[in-house]
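Hi everyone,

Forwarding the result from last night's run.
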Amino acid sequence: MYIIRDKKLYNILIIEDNQGDFTIIEEFLQEHMWAPVIIRAHNYQQALKILSGNEVAFDVILLDLSLPDKSGPDLVSEMLRKVPLCPVIILTGYTDIDFSIQSISKGIFDYLLKDELSAVVLYKSILYAIERNKIIRELRRSEKRASDLFNLSPQPMLVYDPETFKFIQVNKAAIDHYGYNNEEFIDMLFPDLWQEKDNVQTQELYNLFENEPGGIHKEKVTHRKKNGDVIEVELFSGVVVMNGKDFRSVIVIDVTERNLYEQKIIQAIIKTQEDERYEIGGELHDNVCQIIAASQMSLGILKPAVLSSEIALFDQCRAYLTLALHEIRNLSHRLAPAFFDDSNLEQTLNRLFNSFSSDDRAEIRFDYDKAINSYDISPEIQINLYRILQEQLTNIQKYANAASIEVDILIHNNTLKMRVSDDGKGFDVNTAKAGIGLANMRRRTALFSGKFYIVSAPGDGCTISIEIPLLQTKPNLQPA
């Protein structure tokens, strides 16, 4: 039978002291290879000299287990140490299953018995060894690239077991940023980094297992460093496979300073808006209202001179002035709710409800927790709560076509909570375009480390919820 020989160039080192065995192996190789470059070493020391010369890069090494100067396990260990990147195939006359398993587990590519050897078996073994070695070397290069990316990344990176939450690996940036050394990290659990680790929401952790379409999940949380500093971070989590097991790789982006600067900008914008509103409200109250009031007085002086046939028109003019005065005062109170007196939050909100009730058919039910009056709530929180409520009432008035509105304000666990619910037509929060008003409500809430929630569906009305912690009554805008 005609055999098509492989025309690729193969460099093969045969370490064999027995001339007869060498000749057979050489013939087997030449049977399937066109012109293999075969170099022979008669013993281990001669093989070392050949390998140290670096004159030939061998594709494979065929190793006899019993050499004059070294044999058995020592020979295998030394050869693997000397040529870690070259595949080694053992050719032996000894049948020892345990030793063959141990050798392959150490890194030997194949274990062939000379008595069962054939040209086809040897050729296939060499091809498989070379191809497998290419795959292994590429995996090693890939692992090195991944390791370099991990260890040299300027961003903290963490790998943990999703079943136990134990850290498996952390990079230098994580050690530098959090202040824990590698051993301390390995002894920790992922939730230990949370600001309040005993109160970590289970959903927050399991959210990190839910991949977005791109394979990465993003989560915003608060962590605590070893020195006690609290930082706001964004976590980008994805699956990483190590030794056949799925782990979670997390990139940590510290956004504390960025958030502080953003809050400063938001605070400046809101302060400017409030200053403008108070200025306009003051101008309307002090100037325009006074002009209208003076006009009413002037009309009163002129009344005796008005002809009886014109008295109805005269009274109508006075009524219009009275209505204008009422509307301007109402607008002034909306623009500057605490401008005129020392009203508390409840009284100020009631005035807001009264002004909306006169403009809209919706019935407003207001439930106010009297315990709020015993708290020293900062004016900044009060005015922002007022603006959020004012914005939502305006939205309901414009778009919801609601028959009833419920407003609940209470304090629970040192948290100021406000819920505004309506029975209007609602909308899909996932598809609706986010407007400026909604964005403003979110920004005003975030300014005080608060949480903003919105729940709505077509035909089911809308509910917004605000939660602002009262542990600090003013927005924390100063860098630590």
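The chain has four domains: 11-150, 154-254, 256-340, 343-480.

Cheers,
N.
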